[in-house]
Amino acid sequence: MKKNNRNLLILTLIAVAVTLLFNSLIAVYKIKGNSMSDYFTEGQYVFCLKKNFLLNFHTGNKIVFKVLDSNGKNQMLIKETIGVPGDIIKEIRQDSCYWIQIIGKNGQKKTIALDKNQPCGTILPNWPIQIVEYSLDKEYFVLGSNHEKSVDSRSFGPIKQASLLAKVLFSY
Fold it and tell me: How many Å apart are CA 44 and CA 29, to the nearest integer?
């Protein structure tokens, strides 16, 4: 085999190996909708690291996952993780006020007020209150940043670890 042919074969094999490696580790998705408008705009592309045995998902990650839509078909969504395995999530509703309280594995509490247009400083005494609590075990609680328009864990509950597809690395 001539030296030029051998070099061409080596370069071709390297290109094929790099392409296969890239396709097995990286996914690219196009943003549709505005439920994550604080981070992404419609039409933008996100480059993601596909789920594998080395990848861990943490609070604050922007993730891609699948859920069943109202027709029973798989739908891919992108949201932010606010609760991870070991956390306790409390959805608290009172009248038009809505809070999410996250109690971490270490007992640390964080509260997110979701009704930005409402004067919802504190829970009002003598007003009916609804609390839904989730203890996450191999599950994640996710929210869109555009709370009024987002379909997220408030609608379909925590997502199973098996439903996770990828973690967003950057957008373009």
Answer: 8
Predicted TM-score of the model (pTM): 0.84
Q: How far is CA 105 from CA 24, 55, 87, 91, 111, in A?
A: 33, 20, 5, 17, 15
Residue 84 and residue 140 in contact, taking contact as beta carbons nearer than 8 Å:
yes
Distance CA 45, CA 159 (A): 23
Residue 30 and residue 46: Cα distance in Å, rounded? 6
For residue 10, give Cα distances in angstroms to 4, 31, 56: 10, 38, 35
Longest dimension (CA), the chain: 88
Contact 136, 89 (CB under 8 A): yes
Structure tokens at 13: 């094999």
Q: What is the pLDDT along the chain (172 residues), one digit of tens a residue?
A: 577 788 888 888 888 888 877 777 889 999 999 999 999 999 999 999 998 877 899 999 999 999 988 888 889 999 999 999 999 999 998 877 889 999 998 899 998 888 756 667 666 667 788 999 999 999 999 999 998 889 999 999 999 999 999 999 999 8
